[in-house]
């Protein structure tokens, strides 16, 4: 019967847009056949609902074409192992983490009740970070040191960090969780020093803390005294088997004026990069955000927004809020024209898009090599240099993820990341590398005009 479902999917693929097939039909699995009823499994509830509302008649017709029999089609969510607990069982007023941490002076930050694992959209760009976050939340004996969530603004670092806090507090509300930004950590330390309450500060962060969620550690650049205190705090928590999560827009070795001691401590844990989301992930994010705001968007509109917004995912929420307000306050119908008008205010006009193949052609022409040389396993210096510079330029001029760039030259994520960092260091330290990159920059800029 699975072969029949494969044949049905092949027919469907020829009748709907490629993106629609990839998003909605390809993930569906054949579950079982009972009598005249065929059960198909969708990966989640909103996928099940969307397919049911938009593609069920087509699926039914294609089954008839393949089997010459009329079947009843029922869609179900594919059962998954328990990996998420129910949403927060405590109220927003209780989200000051723990009464023991309410002190006079620096403000305390509440957890956002929307930042839970159930509302986080997982895709290739963030899958590793998501699984690492759920694992540190669930694990009784986390063995990878501190978790370092690395990614640019608006990609979900804060969401995952706070989701860990929610999960742990749901399991045991007595757990002492501290959620704080690096800036507030520094301000609180200064406050304690001025009032001669440093011992109280150390007690709170080293002894009276089970889980530390520290945001935006790149802010610690140049803050020598805070870095020293944080290094001691990390040592104390790790030695006691406590859990720590850091978030940052920069990897530890690229945070300027960060002490070697703190760089070492950040790097010794598990670093999980979060990349820009691919089209499919963005599509799912737009869909979910619209459902949360209770506005109905057509597939055409969702496709437009997913294609237009490629980096800061917060822009999606801003646009959806705008559309909801226009709909409710001005009684306007949400159509594609209104959505295009909205994106003008939130998304900067894009320059001409440069493809990976165009960048590869420029690099290969400059180094007088064949594209197959970039994809080969050869480690000749001329090929590795060209390969690394291709990676750097692809990352700079496209919105492709590290994984996608790596796939274009048959390289793993780690190899691409290493090559990228090598070129960045070369630009700073090697005039010849800098000269080559600037020359290729100009070539690409000419292509964009």
Major sheet: size, sense and barrel closure?
5 strands, parallel
Structural class: alpha/beta
For the record, the CATH architecture of the largest domain stands as 3-Layer(aba) Sandwich
Q: Give the rounded overall mean pLDDT.
A: 85
**Could you name the ranges where pLDDT drops below 50 across 5 or more consecutive residues?**
81-108
The tally of helices reads 20
Assembly level: single chain
β-strand amount: 5-15%
Shape annotation: globular
What is the count of β-strands?
Answer: 8
Tell me the name of the CATH homologous superfamily of the largest domain: P-loop containing nucleotide triphosphate hydrolases
Radius of gyration: 25 Å
How many domains? The number is 4
CATH topology (fold) name of the largest domain: Rossmann fold
Helix content bin: 40-55%
Along the chain, the helix and strand elements come as HHEEHHEHEHEHHEHEHEHHHHHHHHHH
Distance, first to last CA: 53 Å
> Can you identify the CATH class of the largest domain?
Alpha Beta
Adjacency order of strands in the biggest sheet? 5-6-7-4-8
Which helices and strands, and how do they pair?
Blueprint: H1 2-13, H2 18-25, E1 29-34, E2 37-42, H3 45-54, H4 56-67, E3 72-77, H5 127-138, E4 147-150, H6 157-171, E5 177-181, H7 182-194, H8 198-207, E6 211-215, H9 224-239, E7 243-248, H10 260-267, E8 270-273, H11 279-292, H12 299-308, H13 314-330, H14 336-346, H15 356-367, H16 371-375, H17 381-397, H18 402-408, H19 413-429, H20 431-448
């Amino acid at each position: 019967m699975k072969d029949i479902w494969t044949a049905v999917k092949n027919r469907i693929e020829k009748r709907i847009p490629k993106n629609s097939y990839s998003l909605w039909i390809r993930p569906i699995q054949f579950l079982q056949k009972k009598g005249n009823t065929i059960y198909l499994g969708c990966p989640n509830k909103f996928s099940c609902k969307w397919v049911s509302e938009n593609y069920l008649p087509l699926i039914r017709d294609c089954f008839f074409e393949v089997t010459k029999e009329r079947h009843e089609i029922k869609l179900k969510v594919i059962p998954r192992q328990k990996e998420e607990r129910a949403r927060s069982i405590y109220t927003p007023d209780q989200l000051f983490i723990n009464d023991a941490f309410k002190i006079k002076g620096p403000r305390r930050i509440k957890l956002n009740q929307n930042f839970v694992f159930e509302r986080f959209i997982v895709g290739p760009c963030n899958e590793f970070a998501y699984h690492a976050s759920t694992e540190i939340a669930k694990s009784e004996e986390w063995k990878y040191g501190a978790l370092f969530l690395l990614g640019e603004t608006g990609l979900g670092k804060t969401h995952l960090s706070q989701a860990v806090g929610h999960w742990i507090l749901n399991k045991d509300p007595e757990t002492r969780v501290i959620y704080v930004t690096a800036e507030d950590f520094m301000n609180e330390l200064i406050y304690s020093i001025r009032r001669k309450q440093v011992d109280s500060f150390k007690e709170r962060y080293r002894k009276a803390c089970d889980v530390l969620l520290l945001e935006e550690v790149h802010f610690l650049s140049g803050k020598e005294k805070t870095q020293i205190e944080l290094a001691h705090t990390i040592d104390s928590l790790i030695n006691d088997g406590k859990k720590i999560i850091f978030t940052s827009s920069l990897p530890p070795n690229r945070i300027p004026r960060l002490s070697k001691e703190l760089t070492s401590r950040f790097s010794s844990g598990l670093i999980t990069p979060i990349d820009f989301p691919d089209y499919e992930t963005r599509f799912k994010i737009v869909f979910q955000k619209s459902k949360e705001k209770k506005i109905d968007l057509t597939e055409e509109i969702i496709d437009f927004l997913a294609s237009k917004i490629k980096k800061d995912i917060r822009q999606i929420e801003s646009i959806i809020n705008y559309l909801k307000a226009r709909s409710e306050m001005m009684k306007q119908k949400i159509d594609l024209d209104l959505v295009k008008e909205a994106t003008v205010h939130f998304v900067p006009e894009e320059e001409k898009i440069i493809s990976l193949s165009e960048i590869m052609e420029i690099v290969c022409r400059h180094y007088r090599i064949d594209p197959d040389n970039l994809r080969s396993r050869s480690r000749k210096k001329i090929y590795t240099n060209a390969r690394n510079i291709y990676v750097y330029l692809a990352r700079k001029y496209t919105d492709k993820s590290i994984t996608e760039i790596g796939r274009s030259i048959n390289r793993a994520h780690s190899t691409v990341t290493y090559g990228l960092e090598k070129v960045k260091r070369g630009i700073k330290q090697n005039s010849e590398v800098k000269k080559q990159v600037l020359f290729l920059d100009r070539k690409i800029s000419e292509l964009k005009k």
